[in-house]
Amino acid sequence: xxxxxxxxxxxxAMIALRLEGWPAVIFILASVAIDLDHLIELYHGxxxxxxxxxxxxxxxxxxxxxxxxxxxxxxxxxxxIIALFIAAIFxxxxxxxxxxxSIHLLTDGWGNFWNRNLKKKGGSExxxxxxxxxxxxxxxxxxx
Length: 144
Prior knowledge:
Number of strands: 0
Strand content: under 5%
Structural class: mainly alpha
Helix content: 55-70%
Largest sheet: none
């Protein structure tokens, strides 16, 4: 369900931004493909998010917001987004990747704020996980 929500919001944003052709394709793919950075958790076997949660939004919300993020989600960091916008000065298609990632992050941010801060589920310190500098400073891609 998480992927479908991002796809739906990405399509709405694509229409609102009046993107067409390749920019639209790049934007939509980026708004969903950003979640590939979650694979590190699946690879190490400690992801809260299980495959069946793709279809059950209630289950997804419970598993995703019940604890802390388990590892670095590289593409979900502000430094990567800023680097994409800077690189887009030299290679325009990266602008649509940066837009797609940004829409995804705004959606994730709203979900995190709503569930973790307003509903008090899973702690309110989730923003620190969106900074690559946090992981560099602690010297590990994993959170405890």
